[in-house]
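Progress narrative, work stream C.
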Amino acid sequence: MRLLLVEDDNHVAAALSAILARHGFDVTHARSGEEALQALVPEVDGFGVVLLDLGLPDQDGYEVCGKIRKRTSTPVIMVTARSDVRSRIHGLNLGADDYVVKPYDTGELLARIHAVSRRTAHEDATGSTETVVRLGAVRIELPTRQVSVDGSVVQLTRKEFDLLALLAQRPGVVFRREQIISEVWRTSWEGTGRTLEVHVASLRSKLHMPALIETVRGVGYRLVAPTA
C-alpha cells in the first residue's frame, strides 16, 4: 500500500518511514501541508492512507485535513498531541477517518492503518444496495452513503456513516461495543473502544440529535427511533 506521511520533523519521518517500510508500505514523505496537497491529485495519487501530523509549519493541520477531504476520498488518520475529546471531534468533523494521540505505540498506529485500509477495501468490494432507511427526520441512503436531516445533507466520515447505518438496521436493539467495533472497524483490538466513543459523540453533534443514539451503560449503544 502507498502511504502519504505528512510530517515536518525529518528525524521522526525517517524513523517512522523505516518502520512502515518494514511492514510493506511504500511511503511518500511530505514536509508541509502544501506538499501534501500537491501529492494528492485525485486522478493519480493512488494512496491508500494519509498519515497527517497536525503540527505543520505552513498551515494548521485541521485546515489541511479539510482541504484533503475536498480533494480526495483517501482515508486520513490524524496524529495529534491533543487528547481532549473536543479536539478529536473537530478533526472527525473535518473529514478525518481516525486519529492517533502522541506519544503513540507503533503497534497501535499500524493497527489503525490496517483497520482503515481493510474497511475501505471492503466498501469498494461490497458495492451499494438500493436500501433507504428513514428514521423520523433522518434519511440514510445506503447506495450513495448520504445522510440528511429534514432534507439537509449532513457530511459524515466513512466510520460515522457505517456506525449510524449499523445501528439503524435494528432501531431499539442494543449493539454491544465489541460487536460495533468488529463490524465497523473490522478488528477486535481493544484500543478502538475510545475511538467508538468519539465517533458516537461526533454523530450526535453533526445530526443535532443527541438523544438519537443512546448509551446503554456497560453494554453498548442503541438507536432510538424518533417518534412521529
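Work stream C, second folded protein:
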Amino acid sequence: MEDLSNYRRSYEKSELLETNIPEDPINLFHRWFHEVEDFEGQSTSGAEVNAMTVSTFGLDGFPKARVVLLKKYNEEGFVFYTNYNSEKGRAIEKNPNVCLSFFWHTAERQVIIKGIAEKTSDIISDNYFDSRPEGSKLGAVVSNQSQVIPSREFLENNLKELEIIYDNKTVERPKHWGGYIVRPVEVEFWQGRANRLHDRIRYSLQENYVWKTERLSP
C-alpha cells in the first residue's frame, strides 16, 4: 500500500465572505469562472477551465462520475453535449438528478452543483453541432458511445468509411446526440483556506425562486 498521508499543501490564495457575494449563484459562478480563466491564462498548466465532472446514478445502482466540457451557462442552467444512448444518457433518462463539480486547483476553488438534467431543444443541439469541426461531427456519428467494440482499428476503419461517405457533404446531427441543460437547485462554492478552515457557501433554491445562502463548516 502506498502511503499518501504526507501529500499536503496550504491554501492561502483567496477568501469567500458573505459580504462579497451576489444574491444569485450564477453571478458568483460567472465571476469565479472568469477569474480562474484569467489566472490560467498566466499559468503553464494548460487546464480547461470549462472541464467539469458529471455524476449520475447508473442503471446498475452505482454512482458514476466522468469529466465533460461545459459549453454554455446562464440563469437557466449549465449545458453540455453527449450521446443520449451513452451510459450517462441512459442514466439521466432514468434519473435526471445529477451533480456537476468543478475543481480549479490553481485557484484553490471548487464548485458543486446539484440539479435536474433535461434535454435541450433540437434547435440548440443543431446549432452547437453545426459549429463543431468536421472531425468532431464525424466522431459523434461513428461512435456508439459506451458500447463494447472489438478494437481501436474497428473504430478508425469506420471513421475512414464515413469520411468517404461524407466527402463534400453536410454532416447532420444524429438524433441520438445532443445537449442537456442542468437546472440547479443547490450550488456550493468552496474556497481553500489555511489550516483546512476552508470557506464554504451554499446557495439553495427556495420555492419562491429566490436563493438562500448559508455558510457550512469545513
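Strands lie at 51-57, 63-69, 72-74, 77-83, 97-104, 109-119, 177-191, 199-205, 211-215. No further action is required on this item.
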